[in-house]
């Protein structure tokens, strides 16, 4: 277990004093909402993420940022590979976004500070009632103008660049809020903080062409899930080495 987490452990050790400082700073900022805006808190999280990226010896190449709407809200649906997935998107997504993560991880060091900084939520993958409640919150916040990053596979294992099943229920929030869906293809993201190699790695983030509400409004959740998955698969087929 620990051998497979060597990159993550080394990154944490290299970042230790920086993270201790940032934990205190995040706590300070969260206690003073009148002083720090949503953008202030998001930029602070981006600073933390970028430091973690560098200390994991990771370079992330980003493609398709022109596909991200400059105004308005949307939901990004990305494939799930490892610890770095959300970080790889946050560090290059200019506008504040929020995220849903497995509730098992929301209380880990620095995660429990960064998650509230971006207004994120934990979700219990074994509790259907709690999942429904959380997704209702996501729908409400989308209607209020939030941008969300969701992982429709729910969790990751040793799947690497191989896609898992996309859970159709995760797409209901976008459909109810009538917002664009942005498929996001992550390639080699698992290499950044998972595994036992300390070599420099390069990951890819591909923001794909948006699927506007007008295009999917007559689809079923399963159809939208399959369309999103197929576009991500096409990008992986084209760009993964």
TrEMBL record:
InterPro entries: Plipid/glycerol_acylTrfase. SMART domains: PlsC. Pfam families: Acyltransferase. The keyword Acyltransferase applies. Transmembrane segments: none annotated. GO terms for biological process: phosphatidic acid biosynthetic process. The keyword Membrane does not apply. Residues 74-189 form the Phospholipid/glycerol acyltransferase domain. One of its GO terms (molecular function) is 1-acylglycerol-3-phosphate O-acyltransferase activity. It comes from the Bacteria. Keywords: Acyltransferase, Transferase. This is Acyltransferase. It comes from Eshraghiella crossota DSM 2876.
